[in-house]
Amino acid sequence: xxxxxxxxxxxxxxxxxxxxxxxxxxxxxxxxxxxxxxxxxxxxxxxxxxxxxxxxxxxxxxxxxxxxxxxxxxxxxxxxxxxxxxxxxxxxxxxxxxxxxxxxxxxxxxxxxxxxxxxxxxxxxxxxxxxxxxxxxxxxxxxxxxxxxxxxxxxxxxxxxxxxxxxxxxxxxxxxxxxxxxxxxxxxxxxxxxxxxxxxxxxxxxxxxxxxxxxxxxxxxxxxxxxxxxxxxxxxxxxxxxxxxxxxxxxxx
Amino acid sequence: xxxxxxxxxxxxxxxxxxxxxxxxxxxxxxxxxxxxxxxxxxxxxxxxxxxxxxxxxxxxxxxxxxxxxxxxxxxxxxxxxxxxxxxxxxxxxxxxxxxxxxxxxxxxxxxxxxxxxxxxxxxxxxxxxxxxxxxxxxxxxxxxxxxxxxxxxxxxxxxxxxxxxxxxxxxxxxxxxxxxxxxxxxxxxxxxxxxxxxxxxxxxxxxxxxxxxxxxxxxxxxxxxxxxxxxxxxxxxxxxxxxxxxxxxxxxxxxxxxxxxxxxxxx
Lengths: 253, 267
Known about the structure:
The structure holds 2 protein chains of 2 kinds.
Chain A: H1 3-26, H2 38-50, H3 54-85, H4 87-100, H5 105-116, H6 120-131, H7 133-144, H8 148-156, H9 161-199, H10 204-213, H11 217-245
Helix pairs in contact in A: 2-11, 3-4, 3-6, 3-7, 3-9, 5-6, 5-9, 6-9, 7-9, 9-10, 9-11, 10-11
Chain B: H1 3-13, E1 20-29, E2 32-42, E3 47-51, H2 58-66, E4 73-78, E5 81-82, E6 90-93, H3 97-100, H4 107-117, H5 122-135, H6 151-164, E7 169-173, H7 181-198, E8 201-205, H8 209-215, E9 218-223, E10 228-234, H9 245-248, H10 250-266
Parallel strand pairs in B: 3-8, 3-9, 6-7, 7-8
Antiparallel strand pairs in B: 1-2, 1-4, 4-5, 9-10
């Protein structure tokens, strides 16, 4: 099947879901207080973005998400490189990491609040903690699973540990790391929104939960649509970055 | 690059020190004796081939020269100095070029790796990489990734990376074993030429008896369980050698018989 018809199909599916949504609401099958029509949702969204404070709230959520993601990515890559390259670090740290990994970040929020209070940096720390795993685990694997033949090449050339990490480890890990960073960004968005909901810090999360509690359904759905758009845009952007960072993966004879 | 001086230096020491010397070498690995009682020398600039059945320790022999393995007993010397680890004077070409090249670097980048390791400044690298690409017949392919090159071309990249080290000892571990017959012959002639130009000493492991006689000044035949030297054959064939005329030479055929009989006996 051609690329063109695949794309056309995806647009068609999206449009028919919107159409179905419109039909369900205009026929009165579902009350607008539970599910507003897409047209009124988008109109409200546009109004909020242009005249209200929705744009500022979106920006503050995205800022928090991106800061948390940067922390998670840097931490994940540095810690992952250390654990991947050093067998000793692997032995020492793996059990602790395996204990921490399954903890849902949302359960740590109350702990964070109790220990550090409702500080914005506390939320940032929780976001980074919850989103570090998709980066950390592939980084460890990428740095530790270097072909033994390449290790031999490095040894024969007398390549030092730092140059080995940068010239062999990092590129070997890069495809997995970038894929992990994409997953991590999604995790960041989720934890940011949940965190905002729980800690009532300015952002889309708190706006959505306030809208839900006061039955402002167009605001609620507008927020959700906005979050979906943010997530999709992030993923598309990172996909492009990933392709640019790993050109050899597309190189075929 | 001070190519000329590095070419002349080993020649000056030629009479003094063998390039590679094994002195009663034994290696135990995992409770098993892999090679035992290995004693031989390779003169500077000599092309020495090593043949023998699988499990006779051919690859182990190379690793002992690189210093990645240390003998349990005896001593290995390179240019008169006891081996205690890898040195950039020694380059090794592996059979599995696909695994020995960095997939994330272009052909030029892979060759530059050796220059980076030697601390050659960035500006000087490009020119030397271009010269090396030209030397192995890959001019114009420098910006291709290994995945975009044929097997023969990938092996040329690996050879170029080894030559970039300016090695005085070149080790080759069945370098052409995975290539088709035509590519293989082309590379045999090329390596003979490149080695002669560089003046490096070569230890060339192969399981192809014809290849060993065609390329070598001497052929070491090993025996398995444990690996030990069974026979050393001097190859007196004139150089430069020719794929047709050399292989039809009566001496070539005689040596082939000798080696073949030997392998039959010890296999």
